[in-house]
Amino acid sequence: MNVLVCFSSLKEFNTCFEDLSNELIYEIFDLLDFHHVYQAFDSLNARFYNLVTNSTLPIEVNLSSISKSTFERYNKDIILPNKHRIRSLHLSNPCLYDDISSPIHILSQFLHLKTLSLNNIESKHLEYLLPTLVSLPRLSSLSITSIDIIINRTAIYSQIIRLPALKYCSLSLKGSHYSEVSLPTLDKYSTIEHLIIKHGISTNELYNLLSYIPHLRRLYVSYILNSWTTYMKPSPFVSPYLTHVSLDLSSISFDVFEEMVIDIFHVVHVLRIFIRNNNDQMYTDANRWEQLILSHMRNLRIFDIRHETWSRNITTNNQQIHPSTCLNSKKTHLQSVQHLRIDNENEIIHYKYYFPNVTTLTLENSLSCTLIKSRSLSLTKIIEILRFTPYIRTLIFESMPLYGVNYKSIQQNQTFQLVSNTNMITNVIFKQRCTLDKLQLFVALCSRIQHLTIGHDTEDLESIVRFLLKKRNENTSHLCSIRLVSTCPFFLT
């Protein structure tokens, strides 16, 4: 639960909800799940019954968590009589796909439907459902998550490509990684502009699918796999609008990725890559990256790469250091980097001199849960990295134990005082629990702080608020917003 704490002097006044105008009540309804509106107001009185049932405003239907008896009444009173008002439909209860009275069986009648989300759906239902969606002239957003194995995903792709107005598509289709059935020759191209693929897809499948999506602007693929069969690429196709790409390359070689860049991703502006446990050393070769980007990605503005390796003999997650990578070259001075993420203390030692213009710093620990507490960054290392990045504006902590720190003596440290006087940090975020003594220390270190987000427990809440609102506290004189994030599930229920 998030709690936003605001301090202001507002005059208290009382009003009755029923005194509000219909227009204002409709604005309130628009912020709520319509099913909750129906439950709360449908039987209240005649006025609210009419507001709920006789409105012409669009309806968003969410049937994710609803009992059978409640659904039957809701379906009879609201869904069926108002098919023309329904703009979005979300289903995740597998039982509703089998229910003969479910709106899923008459989707072709929802002519104003724009958003459809089908979670936990079986392949047998997709087979008869997808062909009916072609008759929906306004369907622009489609999300599908299958609950069982889909033997032939190509059939699903073919039906989706035929949808006349689709702009956004998110797919998570369980299936065999070794099934590579090519799309049949289609006489139609898709209107999709934003495609998310959350299942494993081979390079052959991806090439084949993208050849029918010429208007694609954003692509996210959670897992790309090497193809197991020889593949004849489709005739050259152009993706002139594809500017944002995010890929997991953990299972393919750099050579395969390079070929994809040349064929498909050569006009990309923003490229985000994640690589885990891939032994191809070419991914850490700065010269190969430089050659690829300069030769084939001339429009690239943002290049975000995260490369993780796992040592068989060491039970820690390592960011390996390779002498050939650009981040480890002493000749490299990364003036353009604005956001720096530190995962362990070794990275501070190697990278602290290379990012003079960083404005946002995220401190994390990518180790396993059993090691996080013992391997968090020490305060001295944090101060050290802040010393060499004086333009940081935002500081984020996933966790910050700081066990064994002498809070009074460390503030007398010369480096601490130097960083306190020179840093420009205005936004500090503690995502986990933060005690009063830790907070006092970082407020002293970041005396220009304006926005503070902290995790807390009920015992520290009063003392934390008192400290932050203390009039004579010079270190909080610039503070203008406080956000308290509860770390206890029983707090503020």
Which terms summarize this structure?
493 residues; alpha/beta; eleven-stranded mixed sheet; seven-stranded mixed sheet; 17 helices; 18 strands; disordered N terminus
**Could you say which overall geometry the principal axes of the C-alpha atoms support?**
flat
Beta fraction: 15-25%
Radius of gyration: 28 Å
Spans with pLDDT under 50 lasting ≥5 residues? 1-12, 311-333, 365-375, 489-493
What does the average pLDDT come to?
78
Tell me how many strands there are: 18
* Helix run count: 17
Terminal CA distance: 9 Å
Biggest sheet record = 11 strands, mixed
Q: Largest sheet, order of strands side by side?
A: 2-3-4-5-6-7-8-9-10-11-12
Classify the secondary structure makeup into a structural class.
alpha/beta
Helix content: 25-40%
Written overview of the protein:
With 493 residues, this protein is of the alpha/beta class. Among the domains are: 42 residues; 118 residues, no CATH class. The chain is 29% helix and 21% strand. The chain is built from 17 helices and 18 strands. The strands form 2 sheets. It has an 11-stranded mixed sheet with strand order 2-3-4-5-6-7-8-9-10-11-12. Strands 1-18-17-16-15-14-13 form a 7-stranded mixed sheet. Helix 13 packs across helix 15. The radius of gyration is 28 Å and the shape is flat. It starts with a strand and ends in a 7-residue tail after the last strand. The N terminus and C terminus are likely disordered.
